[in-house]
Specification:
- The complex is a heterotrimer of chains A (about 300), B (about 170) and C (about 140).
- With about 300 residues, chain A is an alpha+beta fold.
- Helix content of chain A is about 40%, strand content about 15%.
- Chain C is built from six helices and no strands.
- Chain C is elongated and about 50 Å long.
- The chains are: A alpha+beta (about 300), B mainly alpha (about 170), C mainly alpha (about 140).
- At the A-B interface, α1, α4, α6, α10 and α11 of A face α1, α2 and α4 of B.
């Protein structure tokens, strides 16, 4: 039933996008692209301005395509950060018409306007034009210890063929949050981050939950201690903006509230820690890795 | 002002907390600031809730301090009390009280909703996101608390207006 | 970087400050929730007491003093005072902490908020005690 609902919603969205793109295709073939320009590296006191370009568009043109068009044919000095062009790398986050979005994931036809304004992500220091400094963001990410900690499985002691036993249900508890591509859109939409430099932000806190909920991780108390500060998880007021702008459906607000429920003791934070299994006793791998070969062959197919 | 720290040594033993402190020495270039708290329209209903909860909270604190001061005139006898009533029992004073009634009703109902949501209730369960990637936490189930808060605040204001103005 | 590394370094920098921290933030959040919900009930009784007689009559000096002379009502007012003061000023503290993050600002905010809390509770209690002792002729 749920799946059916989701499919229906997707179909409606697709239909709307096609309708919009058809109308835009017939009525206009170019848009005005306004690009935020600043060179904060060369001159820290540089005052920003907007450059305007008239860019030809098709119904599939994305904002990133338009920016690259402007860079290729109008002004090669425009600074943009991009890589995969398919919403996987999280490099091209920027404020497009007032909302933080990925440039490669935003079709101009979706915006249904003749003027596209591209600005750098708010809450990130400027570097140049649309490129911003992510070091604060990454430092906050590191501060929540985004890695599995399991004292029983210290790396030097682990048998090469040892693995954790984790059920699909265990995986579902955190899988959603592991889809984070660190694009910074949630960080720039968060109202607390707008003024609080010490607040880790939605990305870091949802990652704290991702590792907290992982059944392979045993460092529960230390994780909670790190976020239980005067600028920690309590500074989230569930404004939901992070989840609204997330391009990957990570839903950071959900992760933060679930983590807080554990911190406040409203949810049972006891979890079943995944068992370590020595694969040398596994019947599939016991006979000189025959099972492995079979598996690889299946994968190739 | 240090803007570019591209050469951060990722393997250094400097703690994450120290690095964040170093960043905080940096100025607030491009931080949205208090204006970033506002912007209630483009981010959805939860942002409206955030904005109103904060606004009504500050307003009610100001009223609370004023109310404690107002009632302290009791200790100076009936004349001082009557003088204070004369100041507050005006049309302006009644309109202010009606706003207090609305603000307190909204703050209470929305506060209860926030206690539930911040305890992970009514937000759904984590799952496997699929296009169009609608977040489960931003759902109508928990949002209904916000709409109820708005409706009850309006009803309470109407009732308050009736009591205050018909009592004259 | 291991977790112990992180802990040691952060403690070194903030030890003197954390030593004077009375409550963890999660405990403060719980107090905020509890005071908020409790205030809802006591304020509801406070308002209902105003509505058991015509609104204008409820504000007459004699009627108000009679209310204050009832020990249970005086205790109710005292509890409203304490609960709202804690809830309201903690809310203000949260907002102020989010505005600036210098050490001096944070310490000043924490101290000022506690002083304001104590101040308003003391001032309101004074009214309740004096009004409770009034004789109504």
């Amino acid at each position: 039933m749920k799946i059916f609902k989701k499919d229906k919603k997707r179909d409606i969205k697709n239909k709307e996008a096609i309708e919009i793109s058809n109308t835009t295709d017939n009525t206009k073939s170019s848009v005005k692209l306004r690009v935020f320009r600043i060179n904060a590296i060369q001159d820290p006191k540089d005052v920003h301005h907007f450059d305007e370009f008239q860019i030809p568009v098709k119904r599939w043109t994305t904002v990133l395509d338009a920016l690259l068009d402007a860079k290729s044919y109008h002004d090669s000095s425009i600074a943009i950060r991009y890589s995969c062009r398919m919403a996987s790398c999280g490099s091209c986050g920027m404020k497009i018409n007032g909302i933080p979005r990925l440039a490669c994931y935003t079709k101009i036809s979706e915006l249904a306007t003749n003027t596209i304004t591209c600005e750098p992500l708010p809450n990130f220091p400027y570097i140049r034009d649309l490129v911003t400094d992510f070091s604060q963001f990454i430092n906050h990410h590191r501060s929540v210890m985004p890695y599995i900690q399991n004292k029983k499985a210290d790396i030097p002691d682990v048998n090469e063929l040892t693995e954790y036993e984790q059920t699909p249900e265990d995986l579902d508890k955190f899988l959603q949050f592991s889809y984070c591509i660190k694009c910074g859109l949630c960080y720039s939409a968060c109202p607390t981050v707008a003024t609080d430099l010490k607040f880790p932000g939605p990305q870091a806190l949802s990652q704290a939950y991702r590792y907290f909920a992982d059944s392979r991780d045993t460092d529960k108390s230390n994780r909670l201690k790190v976020i239980d500060t005067s600028h920690g998880i309590s500074r989230c007021h569930f404004a939901g903006s992070c989840s609204n702008v997330c391009p990957k459906g990570v839903d950071p607000a959900l992760g933060i509230q679930l983590l807080r429920s554990h911190l406040l003791g409203f949810s049972n934070s006891e979890k079943k820690i995944a068992k370590l299994q020595d694969r040398s006793s596994n019947p599939y791998t016991a006979e000189e890795g025959e099972g492995d070969t079979e598996k690889n062959e299946n994968n190739d197919k | 002002m240090l803007l570019w720290r591209g050469n951060i040594d990722m393997t250094s033993t400097t703690s994450a907390a120290k690095r964040i402190d170093d960043n905080n020495k940096n100025d607030r270039t491009n931080r949205a600031g208090i204006r970033g708290w506002l912007n209630p329209i483009i981010y959805g209903w939860e942002r409206v809730s955030y904005w109103f909860q904060r606004l009504t909270g500050i307003f009610l604190l100001v009223y609370f301090i004023g109310h404690v001061y107002e009632t302290s005139s009791l200790v100076s006898g009936p004349d001082a009390w009557a003088a204070m009533l004369e100041l507050t029992q005006t049309i302006g004073g009644h309109l202010f009280l009606i706003l207090v009634i609305g603000a307190s009703t909204f703050h209470t109902i929305n506060g209860i909703r926030l206690i539930f949501t911040q305890s992970g209730q009514g937000l759904g369960k984590p799952g496997r996101p699929d296009y169009p990637y609608d977040p489960t936490s931003v759902n109508n189930k928990q949002r209904s608390g916000l709409w109820i808060a708005f409706i009850l605040a309006a009803v309470a204001m109407l009732y308050g207006a009736n009591v205050l103005f018909s009592g004259e | 970087m291991t977790s112990s590394n992180f802990k040691n370094n952060s403690n070194k920098r903030t030890r003197w400050f954390t030593n004077i921290t009375l409550l963890r933030e999660s405990q403060i959040t719980k107090i905020h929730y509890i005071t908020g919900i409790s205030a809802l009930f006591v304020v509801a009784i406070h308002i209902l007491m105003r509505l058991i007689m015509p609104f204008n009559m409820s504000l007459e000096f004699e009627n108000v003093i009679l209310n204050y002379k009832n020990i249970f009502y005086a205790l109710l007012l005292e509890s409203i005072l304490v609960l709202i003061a804690i809830h309201g000023f903690n809310g203000l503290r949260v907002i102020l902490l989010e505005i600036r993050q210098t050490l001096i600002w944070e310490r000043a905010v924490n101290i000022l908020v506690i002083v304001a809390m104590i101040g308003i509770i003391a001032y309101g209690t004074r009214t309740i005690i004096i009004a409770n002792g009034f004789s109504v002729g």
